[in-house]
Amino acid sequence: MTLDEFIVKNKINLSGKVIHVCEAGIEIMRHSINPLYDERHIFGILANLDRLLEEEKNLDKSKINFEVLLLAICWHDVWRTKRFPLNIISFIFNHSHEGTGSMSMFSQIAAVFDLDKRLIRSVRYAIRKHSGLQFKRLTTLEAKILKDMDSLEEWSLSRLKPIVDGNVFFNVMNSKAIRLAKFYFDNFMVRDSAKSFHFEWSKAEFTKRKEAYLVEARKLVEEAVKFKIIKK
Fold first, then answer.
1. Closest to 145 (Cα-Cα) out of 14, 40, 53, 20
2. DSSP state of 78
3. pLDDT digits over 96-108, tens only?
4. In Å, how far from its chain's centre is CA 138?
5. Between the CA atoms of 30, 33, 34 and 38, what dihedral angle is there, to the nearest 10 degrees?
6. Residue 131 sits in which domain range?
7. Does a structural domain hold residue 232?
8. What is the pLDDT of residue 136?
9. Predicted confidence (pLDDT) per residue in 34-56, tens digit
10. Structural domains counted in the chain
């Protein structure tokens, strides 16, 4: 779901400046060198959000600051667009810095467009708190929504496609990507549980997606083992 489609369908009112900054974030994502973090990632999150708004009974839509939420969605992973880690060290560095890196990039564009300072602070918080390395609970509704929608998107089957495409088992670059993907799955994704989500719809959707994802991920691992890319 594109930003325009989401705004029109859900009748969201945004200022012209906010729309321009959102579009700037999406444009950066569109030119990403990392196939897992391009504009499709943003559109997937918006599709998740659209369903959350429709199906979550305990969410009062009127309490959501959509300027904060949509800015955070469009900018939360811009730092990743220039990075495609192929070893564990660079992956861990990227994983630990993604929130602060994207937050800083947003701050620069927000200053250029002269966005309201309170708006900037709220967006910065949501972006910083979306990353996997957190030690305190999230306090704002927008940060909780972004965290849930982004985490759900990680379990989307469409995210396996870039790994599989392009004669993956005969490509050195993709072989490294598969090994790193397995490391991330074994050490980070498997720790995800329904309890880590903030909304009942997110919890139920996560459970369904995880089951389907595991089936496809096992097939990928079996192929990688067969071609001796990874060890069983």
1. 53
2. G
3. 667 788 999 999 9
4. 17
5. 0
6. 3-226
7. no
8. 81
9. 888 899 999 999 999 999 999 99
10. 1
**Residue 202 maps to a domain:** yes
Q: Which residues, at least 6 apart from 176, have a Cβ–Cβ distance to it below 8 Å? A: 86, 87
Q: Which of 103, 111, 152, 108 is nearest to 127 (CA)?
A: 103
pLDDT level of residue 70 (50, 70, 90 thresholds)? very high
List CB contacts of 2: < 8 A, sequence separation 6 or more.
43, 46
Question: How buried is residue 51: exposed, middle or buried, by Cβ count under 10 Å (0-12/13-18/19+)?
Answer: middle
> Residue 117 falls within a domain, yes or no?
yes
Among residues 32, 50, 154, 16, the alpha carbon closest in space to that of 105 is found at: 32
Three-state DSSP string of 132-201: CCCCCCCCCHHHHHHHHHHHHHHCCHHHHHHHHCCCHHHCHHHHHHHHHHHHHHHHCHHHCCHHHCCCHH
pTM of the model: 0.84
